[in-house]
Amino acid sequence: MRILSVASEAYPLVKTGGLADVVGALPAALSPHGIATTTLLPGYPAMAAATRNGRVAHHWPDLLGVEARLIEARIGEHPLLVLDAPELFARPGGPYADADGRDWGDNWRRFAALSRAAADLAAGTIAGHRFDVMHAHDWQAGLAPVYARALGAEAKTVVTVHNIAFQGSYDAGIFPALGLPASDWSIDGVEYYGQVGFLKAGLNAADAITTVSPTYAREILRPEFGMGLEGLIATRSRQGALHGIVNGIDPAVWSPDADTALPARYAIETLGRRAANRAAVEQAFGLDPASGPIFTVVSRLTWQKGMDVLVETIDHLVARGGRLALLGSGDAALEYAFLSAAERHRGRVGVRIGYDEELSHLLQGGADAILIPSRFEPCGLTQLYGLAYGCVPVVARTGGLADTVIDANEAALAAGVATGIVHDGVTPGVLIHAIDRTVALYAEPNRWRMLQRSGMQADFSWSRSGQLYARLYRDLTGSS
Length: 480
Prior knowledge:
20% strand, nine-stranded mixed sheet
């Protein structure tokens, strides 16, 4: 079976968040199930090395108003197709925004072109490429099923919602430039409250919808999580097409016994070696040595992630003997608030604004607990990294966090199955209580070591998730 995976980013070529990790890991996860995955990505400058010796598989003189080529390359051991459209993608800055963080004004055209190219592939109009299923990720690929339908593609279509809060809604005036039939300007097409809705259109057109955890699949049926799309998803036809498949992590990238970013590698049997990594975290973040736990945060600094609430609890965290090492960026006001806390608590709070892949590995391998107080979290990957690295997750009970972390209540501790601390709701009082529970458990070395070992023994590789995706593809295509 041949799958076309369409996305705006994929690790290790280009990454802004967890989407890239998922898209990058899927081909290897599906391969053991007899599924060959080809990934289609935009031709950002970061793709230059990957495409340098690639074969041009197709040429569009006019792809939504720009010239474009399709270049064959590789992502690891798996096929990669790159949409080489310099007018759209060969520019400085990030995949979605310029160097100052402002969204590119033509993002609608950039990702509509990606979707149209994907649909041409799904429809079999490009020689040498045939696919049974086209799997589109998030709003950036949301129009792919719509274009595929317009082209009469036989390939089945899947849309995965990694975060329903990001929907890709644009002014209705762009519709004529999309090259879709006039009939697609309707509630059954791309129209969404008088705008063009990329994600809405994809959810409506796809043969199947997946989210990145079972709990999030249930949550987005409710107004407080569905972000206005709950009505569409909750219809009988769409709800039956909805599947929750939790993300996995790639052990080739995230394994403490083989991680070259760690000063000291370790396994369940050698947890004591984490002490060297802990010392490296202290040095990197300017933390004074102390006996209390090091809490870490590796996150976007946003309201969704509960970072505004965490800011309010830092004084208490320090007062209880904890220290904080934070790596992230986001809202300017939150960045300032965390930097102010670091100034206020020198030697107890360290903050790095930005993102650093190697440093994120060090934090998982050296900090004691990772704080993830998200108001909603479709899946989350940092808690999975924490489990794998013995960095105990302290998480809100929502989405994938609820699906992957077992709370250290007395029954779970007695049974030896607890893997973290789970709190209900995201308020300063609730988070303070969770921090207190963490500090108390850390003061009991035997129990703390049990939490670490239970988390490290859990299987959050792509093995199970890959099997579920393979089953979904086969159900859609009627193959055995």
